[in-house]
Amino acid sequence: MSRLGEWRRAAAIVVSLAGVSGLAHAQAALPDSIIGAPGSLTGAQQTQLEAFVAPLAADLRSGDTERLSNARTQLIRLTFAPNISVSFRNALSRELEPALRAILQDGSSAERINALHIAGEIATTNTADLLSRSLSSEDAGQRYAAASGIRSSFATVDRSDSPALGRQRVLGLVRARAARMAQESDPSVSDAAVRAIDAAGSIQRPGFAEVRGPAYEALANATARRILTDVQQGADPSDEMIRAWLRAIEASRNALLDPAGLTGPARQATARLAGVQLRWAVEHAPDASESRAPMIQTLIAAAENTIYLMHQPATRSPQLSDLASRARWDDLRRGAEELAGDAGVLTRSPFNVPPADLVPAP
Hints:
The protein is mainly alpha-helical.
């Protein structure tokens, strides 16, 4: 098994053992008066928190699987407490940060996975910094765990009544994750990055509507750059990398089904991604292996859905046609040009195909 494969297997075990689905109903060892403290902790409360965290932080580096699992579960349980306050979340973050940082510097693979998993669930500015730094790790497994942790932080923001990450910090994490996508060579990390940015764009919490447009703009632009990098280098992406590209265009397409908050630049970037993916797909379709051909056809269909949704009212569901078989390949190649104007509205018939041909005639 590859090193990254070991990381992914360990990460799955981490989540399974944590029993996240039942954490919201578990009783925390700390009293509710501390977990739900509306303001800064009192001296006595801070002392109680320190006494609770210290042995658990030590267990995270103990090398003992049972102790490590117990420590992780107790710490994550706190972040799922229904009455957790911003003050407590930040206090917990400050108390744990030195231990988590030390683990990320020289801990074992399992210890680093746990550290990033815990950091993602705590979801504060301090833990976001730890996750961001791990995105540039030389170890693909650590980059994967960091991307997964960022996705967990976005989920925490969405579900929590007291998120400690503000809109600008969420956008900072999105940009940090997107900035590395063009250079990312590992398909599993690329897929985790797509999932993380899509999670940011899907946040429904009031006050975060402005995240949606920039998130999908970043996702589309970063994926298009990744594809163009491979084209320029003459690289042959793996099937796993193509699946990551497909996930990106499907996420962008699905965002068009609910266009609220999608800015003009986000729609432009989505159109550009659809064109770049179509150009790559049609140029590689003739030489595709029997196993890869269906994947390329799916990629073409997803890009076509995206174009259709940009052209038609968003209240209509995407429909398939035989655009890929009827349109001239040269037209599809030229379709990699920008399709949308400043307002994100199609400025011409996409890919030089008549609008009526985008979907089957009624």
